[in-house]
Amino acid sequence: MRHATIIGTGSYLPDNIMTNDDMARLVETSDEWITSRTGIKERRISTGETTSDLAYEAATRALSNANLDAKNLDLIICATISPDSFMPSVACIVQERLGAINAAAFDLTAACTGLIYGMAIAASFIESGMFQNILVIGAETLSKTLDWSDRSTCVLFGDGAGAVILSASDQKEGIMSITLASDGSKQDYLCLPAIPLSNPFIEKGEDVIKPFITMKGQEVFKFAVRSITDMIKKLLSKANLSHNDVKYVIAHQANQRIIEVAAKTLGIPNEKFFINLDKYGNTSAATIGIALDEMVQKDMLQPGDRIILIGFGGGMTSGAILLEWS
Ligand code: ACO
């Protein structure tokens, strides 16, 4: 059966490192508070690079890792909640810079689950026979979406990009199973407003809508733990496997405590959950691609290893993918 397999990964982080001590010079917080509540020690913050700049660099590395010419890409999907502009899409900007002249391109919004949604769409296009090679990028400059005077949110996030290239394969390795979900009734847990409605038929209101991330932290925490546990159970039962058959879980890098509580609830050893949020914070749609690429660079994945990728985020959205490394 024709299915989708990962043939290349890439990631890119801005050089500028902002530590928790740097953060404590901006808002009333401390390294001790941030580390004990979240596991985050530092994050990368753009000093001028845009989301499409980060996305382009990650994409270039993924193409080189896959040994694929950009002209062989059929589709580019960029998952982001911090695009350069509503139009053109980040994906179209990247398409032009890569010289991917044969690719269709679009952005998608599924917050921190964006890369998983993008990979699910890519897998469907590949399985249907419509496309052969698809680049999926998760890229964010969340630093521009933060209220830098709000210590409850600004300490959590960072900038970065991760990318994967999916390709059609007849081998047994590749994406084995996918599950996606959304719950719009919890939309107020995480918000990032866009341009408010304004036109000649609307009286100007007094309210100024700030284009910053707001969050109900404890509700998000509970949603995240539930999503990880429910999705992993669902994926494993669909594939008739147990967690002993899985080498690693790459969960969205939001908070170490979320991952530890989920691991304990599932009875899965912490060591199976890859963690790099201490270095980069929460880069939303980018975290899973960055983590996967770091594991590839460290040679942690061998052919035949089963891994689970799992995302959860604003919307609220969640999704997970079980795959066999090739
Ligand atoms: N430094 C110091 N004190 C702080 C900070 C900070 N950065 N932020 C909040 N506080 C204070 C609060 O003001 C409050 O003080 P008070 O008791 O005097 O009122 C106290 O710490 C406790 O605040 P809580 O919000 O109750 O803290 P909590 O223990 O819930 O931890 C946290 C907050 C870390 C955000 C937690 O709720 C959490 O991890 N939630 C998950 C959210 C998450 O990870 N979001 C990432 C984005 S979502 C996503 O990617 C899906």
Quick synopsis:
This protein is of the alpha/beta class and 326 residues long. It contains ten helices and 13 strands.
Characterise the protein shown here.
The protein is of the alpha/beta class. It is built from 10 helices and 13 strands. The protein has 2 domains: 3-172, Thiolase/Chalcone synthase (Peroxisomal Thiolase, Chain A, domain 1), CATH 3.40.47.10; 176-324, 3-Layer(aba) Sandwich (Peroxisomal Thiolase, Chain A, domain 1). 33% of the residues lie in helices and 24% in strands. Strand 12 and strand 13 form a beta hairpin. Helix 3 crosses helix 4 and helix 7 (217-239) crosses helix 8. The longest helix is centred in the last third of the chain and has 23 residues, at 217-239. The protein is globular, with a radius of gyration of 19 Å. It binds acetyl coenzyme *A (ACO). Acetyl coenzyme *A is lined by residues 29, 33-34, 37-38, 112, 151-152, 155-156, 190, 215, 217-218, 220-221, 224, 252, 254-255, 282, 312-313.
Q: How much helical structure, as a percent, in the residues?
A: 25-40%
- Superfamily (CATH H level) name of the largest domain: Thiolase/Chalcone synthase
Overall number of strands: 13
What is the terminal separation in angstroms? 16 Å
Structural class category: alpha/beta
CATH architecture of the largest domain: 3-Layer(aba) Sandwich
Number of helices: 10
Radius of gyration: 19 Å
- Spatial strand order of the main sheet: 1-7-6-4-5
- H/E order of the elements? EEHHEHEHEHEHEEEEHEHHHEE
What oligomerization state is this entry in? single chain
